[in-house]
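// run 5 | inverse folding | seed 20
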């Protein structure tokens, strides 16, 4: 059963070490109490209900079905609310008492179903691991320091550094949840390439092997003392690990015994075989996946065939215009 997956089995060693260091900070409990007392969770919920799109109950039900499938697979119950916000290639999870997941519109538009499952699984991993409390504090840290008198005294520099270090390393554990959700190593790495800046027009030419190999060159820079100093300095400003680092770590775990053993006990997500381009866009030639409704390169609607009359459907049509058959929103 999915509920039987022990989050500790998926916890990355660097996450475990960073968490142990964080929990030694004496002011941490006081800072967490402050977050609860000042209602940051209510603020975020109000923001979502007022300016985001809640998915489900007739709103983007196809996306909601993918989300529910990932939650069931990873043992996240009850299924948290899912919201869509305007924005780029981003997603986040928040809400300690009532967790919720937010996907930005640019992310949903840019990912195949398998890649989207990876991101959703990653976000649900934060819930399974109990990350949300500390994550909320880390994500609101700059706001706390800017708006609240005395917050800098409450949260010493050492505590802030430890909190942000843990926040980065926790992402490595959640990438493992993302891989369990999508069951597609290449899809996980492709997400990292897209997050790194790959343009729509070149999506069909991405090399996951080349990107992972790039990490080895990145690691060799640590043999240079000056580069190592620069790396520490730059990492202090990051909310996530380097994308090449994430790609390498998730690929290594995908090829290990723990992942293989977990797969045998998990229910299927129901989305079929791993992503692979199935045909070119008839307008621009960009490679399309079987789950694509529109070409991400040129926006052209992808034609489909009605199972009732054989007529042509375009985009995420739910009804055939020729025979009125209900065809759903998936290709």
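// decoded
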């Amino acid at each position: 059963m999915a509920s039987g997956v022990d989050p500790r089995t998926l916890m990355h060693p660097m996450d475990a070490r960073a968490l142990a260091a964080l929990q030694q900070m004496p002011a941490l409990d006081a800072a967490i109490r402050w977050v609860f007392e000042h209602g940051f969770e209510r603020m975020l919920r109000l923001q979502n209900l007022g300016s985001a799109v809640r998915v489900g109950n007739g709103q983007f039900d196809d996306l909601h079905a993918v989300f529910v499938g990932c939650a069931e697979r990873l043992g996240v119950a009850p299924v948290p609310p899912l919201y869509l916000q305007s924005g780029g290639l981003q997603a986040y999870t928040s809400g300690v008492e009532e967790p919720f997941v937010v996907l930005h519109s640019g992310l949903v538009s840019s990912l195949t179903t398998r890649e989207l499952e990876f991101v959703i699984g990653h976000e649900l991993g934060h819930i399974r691991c109990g990350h949300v409390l500390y994550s909320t504090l880390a994500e609101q840290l700059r706001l706390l320091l800017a708006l609240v008198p005395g917050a800098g005294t409450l949260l010493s520099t050492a505590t802030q550094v430890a909190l942000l270090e843990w926040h980065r390393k926790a992402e490595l554990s959640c990438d493992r949840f993302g891989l369990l959700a999508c069951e597609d190593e290449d899809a996980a790495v492709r997400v990292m390439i897209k997050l790194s800046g790959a343009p729509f027009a070149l999506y069909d030419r991405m090399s996951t092997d080349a990107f992972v190999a790039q990490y080895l060159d990145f690691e060799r820079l640590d043999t240079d003392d000056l580069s190592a100093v620069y790396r520490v300095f730059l990492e202090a400003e990051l909310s996530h690990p380097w994308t090449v680092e994430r790609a390498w770590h998730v690929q290594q775990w995908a090829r290990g015994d723990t992942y293989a053993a977990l797969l045998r006990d998990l229910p299927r997500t129901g989305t079929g075989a791993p992503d692979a381009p199935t045909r070119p866009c008839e307008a621009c030639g960009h490679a399309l996946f079987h789950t694509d409704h529109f070409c991400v390169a040129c926006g052209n609607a992808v034609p489909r065939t009605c199972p009732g009359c054989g007529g042509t459907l375009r985009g995420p049509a739910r009804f055939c215009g020729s025979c009125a058959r209900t065809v759903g929103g998936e290709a």
